[in-house]
């Protein structure tokens, strides 16, 4: 394990290893115009590029792609990430030429369809969440959080309320929450969870005074638990003048059932790449729109998409860009991830409609509870009550040195993507399992069977787990080395830099 790749059974050839002088992927016809003379400064005697035929290149990359795992390949129960199946119709719509070949600087008259789509998506997200206004600009969830904290700061500032410096964050929160708040210079105060996985109300009350900027709350939280006192939590923070930010990454549990805006959240981000089936995890750009309640609408990033001229029976409305009165400014160079994010999410919402969205959440919660019911006698579940879209089990057994990491790696031998592990931090050896609504009962059963079998192997043949995975192209990686000594160009010959 002293090299990130040496544990592999096979040494993979690089594209340079396959190269042979004179092999060629393209042949151009003789030009029918005079050859231009290239400037001497652009020419060099030697350019060390691999020389291969088209078929060699295709086979090389096709082979590499097969070492990968994706949601199109199999079950991907990566808790908190909502790795649901991404319907292929989204790929068709986002590649329509009118969406794909437009530029954000085009005159608005030439992109009315795009603006209508963005405006409608803003309206739908408002309706889904119960908020007053929505920006589509943020690039992903963490960027949405940062945008949200800046909006909260602008709000406090506009009221001359400048002694608020503390952001309250539950100990079950995603790491991006303290990171986003910390980036704005706020002091982070951690609030513990109680034994049912809710925010500890007593600890919360003790912190609340006029230095509280706000609370960042994920509900359901990363334990998959719906906070049983969510309205009281929000009230406590509001009573001391703070704002409540909702981390909407877990919205897949709530669609059509609860609207965060209705229960008192002041603002929240959506992860279109989680809840609304935009691919992620190497599959495409994220998108993290933010919704805000009425008292924060004036502070949203500019521009938003708005109606510049109302239409009537004969003329459609004219869509364009509008700037909220006290806007915090731009959060992104242009208008957010339009084709890869907004068009796909729009398609997904349009294909489901209100009833379909509600079904999504009901099946997501049902699937998680089914898995929980099948596994709770084999794996210890520290917060064991009806869960929402995910739950967290402990990946350890009494009297065994098998760890969550070993179980996660062994799952790969059974052809499943491992669940999120070692998060949230408040569960020892955490295995965080989120099946999503797109899996059928056969898949859920196969996964539960594998985990039950692995628990048995942990007792009888623990080395199978310690040495897993043994059926993948590469074996167990040295994860610390892989993270600390990242080699992104290992496919280049060592002397490449000298040659170019
Ligand atoms: C995924 C996630 C985030 C961050 O979202 P990104 O889109 O990955 O930046 C924040 N909070 C929770 C609970 C999440 O699951």
Can you put this structure into words, describing what you see?
It is a single chain. By secondary structure, the chain is α/β, with parallel strands linked by helices. The chain has a domain at 88-350: Type I PLP-dependent aspartate aminotransferase-like (Major domain) (Aspartate Aminotransferase, domain 2, 3-Layer(aba) Sandwich). It contains 14 helices and twelve strands. The protein has a seven-stranded mixed beta sheet, sandwiched between helices. α5 (141-158) packs across α6 and α9 crosses α11 (441-460). The longest helix has 38 residues, at 338-375. It is globular and about 75 Å long. Bound molecules: pyridoxal-5'-phosphate. Pyridoxal-5'-phosphate is lined by residues 80-81, 140-142, 174, 176, 218, 222, 247, 249, 271, 286, 288.
Question: What's the quick description here?
Answer:
With 500 residues, the chain is of the alpha/beta class. It has helices at 54-66, 89-94, 97-100, 112-129, 141-158, 176-183, 201-207, 230-239, 338-375, 404-413, 441-460, 462-466, 479-484, 496-499; strands at residues 133-135, 166-170, 187-191, 212-218, 243-248, 267-270, 290-292, 304-309, 318-322, 391-394, 420-421, 430-433.
Shape, principal axes of CA atoms = globular
The oligomeric state of the chains shown is: single chain
Unreliable residue runs: 1-8
- Give the strand line-up of the largest sheet: 1-7-6-5-4-2-3
Number of strands: 12
What would CATH call the class of the domain at 88-350? Answer: Alpha Beta
Topology as a string of helices (H) and strands (E)? HHHHEHEHEHEHEEEEEHEHEEHHHH
SS field, number of helical segments = 14
CATH architectural grouping of the domain at 88-350: 3-Layer(aba) Sandwich
